[in-house]
Amino acid sequence: MIEINDLHKRYGDKTALDGVTFSVRPGEMFGFVGANGAGKTTTMRILMGVLTADSGSVLRDGRPLTFEDRRRFGYMPEERGLYQKMRVAEQVEYFGRLSGLTAGGARKATGDLLEQLSLTERANDTVDALSLGNQQRVQLAVALVHTPEVLVLDEPFSGLDPLAVDALAEVLAARCEAGVPVLFSSHQLDLVERLCHSVGIISAGRMTATGAVEELRDREGRGTLRVVVRGAAPGWAASLPGEVVEKGDEVLVTGVEDDGQEILHLAVRAGSVEHFGWQRPTLTEIFREAVA
């Protein structure tokens, strides 16, 4: 259990963090989202001990994090830190040894990860010969090589093609199933919605929403009512309550204050109702509302 409690951080007159609080449970994938400069990277750096908070605490299972705890974390920083002239496999093994693996253990873990991340054929290439996407995969392998007990990844999917995204998602899902808390930041909200159990939205250093993805979608209300009526006369929906958008036989209604039964009755009288149901807001819509 990783707990971030009431973190504050200032740089001169600029407030970077203003009471940031959230937690990541064992086996949970937590998506940390926010605009550039919102405070995501600062929070992660404090979690990893790269920065010191002005106040607040970072706990593991109810106790303050120690240096030894952090040695067992997997961390991928926003700025990539690879040795450009070192070969891929050699580099991943090297970081495995720095994390305490034996030579044989580091070699085996490296081979497994290069296969999972589709880098086996590039094992003997130097990093500077790789595309940016493949360099990103190597950086991820470095973060994962020592089988970390906690994963903290800053924009891990940035620059990856869809196949690489799927490969990484499988690796992270497997770590979650093994009980590892996974915290990652991303601007790809559709990806966060698909992969994460919980999400935290940060804006200008403050948490504006946090919780399970499905709970957040439910919390924001019913969203948009979608009605599809076949054979209705043109303009039948003009008198419906709320804001109405017509797209042929499809009608989208927002701002409905009741359960929509009046709209259903009107739709039935207008023609053959093929679809009637509420569309919950997406994470992207929740994010836009939260940071507005």
Automatic annotation (TrEMBL):
The keyword Transcription does not apply. Residues 2-229 form the ABC transporter domain. GO terms for molecular function: ATP binding. Keywords: ATP-binding, Nucleotide-binding, Transport. PANTHER family: ABC TRANSPORTER, ATP-BINDING PROTEIN (PTHR43335:SF4). Belongs to the ABC transporter superfamily. This is ABC transporter ATP-binding protein. It comes from Streptosporangium amethystogenes subsp. fukuiense. The lineage of its organism: Bacteria, Bacillati, Actinomycetota, Actinomycetes, Streptosporangiales.
